[in-house]
């Protein structure tokens, strides 16, 4: 059998301009692909219809081309494939692992505040810092659920974590790889995400579900992404196992910090790559400054 080439992907969200952190991640993917004689795909993760904009997508192509990157066409754009993610969610529903949740963010916060007042203890949070879901809608009367769904009440779908973990082997893990070609197992602990949202209220998917479904569909063998997504991999491995999908190898790279040591981010208004370019900095200088 001819061994297949490794497949890497860079998967930005067009909800703002790319900054140096994205440039680093994209260049690192390309570098790994070169080193491992693999292929590089680009995926546009634009399921957040409220925040993603076509002009940001165009800017992604411009910025990456300016950096000297090449990727295979066609580019997969997630918002074109909601039916595909709906089907993946359907498979989890068939296994009775999802339940509708009607809670607003405020309702969750209020419930947690009440419980904290009762117990005098701080409520646990997930790795992203969000309050763990207190399970309010997990135990609703089925008749009430039917009623609320029939009137079209907006709802998300959450994973029933305890039920999902009950289907899992004793311990779950993925394999991490590095530039020296070392591969080592990493145990995961999806439980720390609680009953996470797998299908959001506004769209028939979530970041976690679409990333897992697409990585499998595109036969991604090596995922290279920032350390800020390392904890999410625990949930991804769980979803992959439940859906019968392969788990790629992962490399979570360190994040590029701004001059005062904060993580670069679109929400912090970090300097966009386009602004760096407008200052007259060349692509070669950017690549060099990032260690390539
Ligand atoms: N779309 C995600 C982001 O822009 C990256 C997802 C991933 O690499 O898994 O942060």
From TrEMBL:
Residues 9-275 form the Glutamyl/glutaminyl-tRNA synthetase class Ib catalytic domain. It comes from the Bacteria. The keyword Metal-binding applies. Keywords: Aminoacyl-tRNA synthetase, ATP-binding, Ligase, Metal-binding, Nucleotide-binding, Protein biosynthesis, Zinc. GO terms for molecular function: ligase activity. It is an enzyme of class 6 (ligase). Its EC number is 6.1.1.-. Belongs to the class-I aminoacyl-tRNA synthetase family. This is tRNA glutamyl-Q(34) synthetase GluQRS. The lineage of its organism: Bacteria, Pseudomonadati, Pseudomonadota, Alphaproteobacteria, Hyphomicrobiales.
